[in-house]
Amino acid sequence: MAEHPDDLRPGVLFDVDGTLLDTNYLHVLAWWQAFRDTGHPDVTMSAVHRAIGIPSAALVQHLLGTDDEDAVDAHSARYEPLRDQVVAFPRAGDLLRACADRGATVVLATSGAAGDLDWMLPAIGERDAVEGATTSADVDEGKPAPDLLSTAVRDHRLDPARCVVVGDTVWDVESARRADLPCVGLTCGGIGEAELREAGAVAVYADPADLLARLDESPLGRL
Hints:
Elements: E1 9-14, H1 24-37, H2 45-51, H3 56-64, H4 69-79, H5 92-101, E2 105-109, H6 117-124, E3 132-134, H7 147-155, E4 158-167, H8 170-178, E5 183-186, H9 193-199, E6 203-205, H10 208-213
Parallel strand pairs: 1-2, 1-4, 2-3, 4-5, 5-6
Helix pairs in contact: 1-2, 1-4
Protein name: HAD family hydrolase
Pfam families: Hydrolase (PF00702)
Organism: Pseudonocardia oceani
């Protein structure tokens, strides 16, 4: 029997790295080191930064034009000691709680591994506000493909007509566009407002605190 739209729920799909957690530049450093560790010294930090948000293997393919599992492993090794320095952006947990309190189903949609949630959720805070998460383990293809978001919508019984994505990269915006979902961009990950809007973001804010301060007038507040 077909599911009636009334059975579906409004939701907000949050990217994590660079959106809720201030991790992007730590990842840039770890990847920059990893590429040098594995014989690719010509890859610049700028190039790495613009690729952040793509799953690891695809990021390597994007930057090198070929696969290199050693580079992926080297990134993991380089990033591990940096995790102790990860902090949430100001008011990130409060933003999740505010969305949940307004009746939205809060889902994390991250290209990271399922095991990353073990440290990501405590770092963000307000764990109880999060209904669930969709990770790279749940899909065959990561961002900018729509799979991560489409799977999150399906698995958490969300109404696509009342669902908004929040992310910080053009890859998040493209993934949302391909999933037929509006995307709100945040510039705290290091990508500027003009580029996020050009990619298709329906609104852009500085960071979680800025979005929270203007939540009622934002696309999230209109769910």
